[in-house]
Specification:
mainly alpha
Amino acid sequence: MFSLSLCLPSLSPSLSPPLSLPCAHSKLALSSPELIAAGRSLIKETDASLARSARVVAETLTVGARAAEEVDQQRAQLERVLDDADAVRESLGRARGLVVDVARGMATDRCLALLLLLVAAAAAAAAAARVVSRRRGAREAAAAAAAVSFPAAATALAVGRKVLGLG
């Protein structure tokens, strides 16, 4: 028998947490088989603790890998969203250009319609002036056309008279 001063773990696991090693400093008289059994028990507890730690590490690595994968997917999704936003900005720019072109076309169309109206009014004034000139003199026809039509018609009448050779 040996007489040793040892710090042995509690052999009843229900009374202490798995990693706590309470020490009772006392002189114990243990035989070699008892010391070997106590050492093996300590090794088993240590191995079990290491296995639990290894499982926790493996789970942590798995969770970290999943989190990294999700972050990578979110980054890719964010890049797609930014690309789509750039495409929308480009489309809006093109749409603005088209709206400006359409507005210019509409303004041009209105100007042409006004010009056609003036030409029609001038033609009507010229026709009226010709009819009136046959009944009255050329001076009275010009005055009548200017009175009936707006001021631009008088100019159109003068042009029309030159074209028709009336004076």
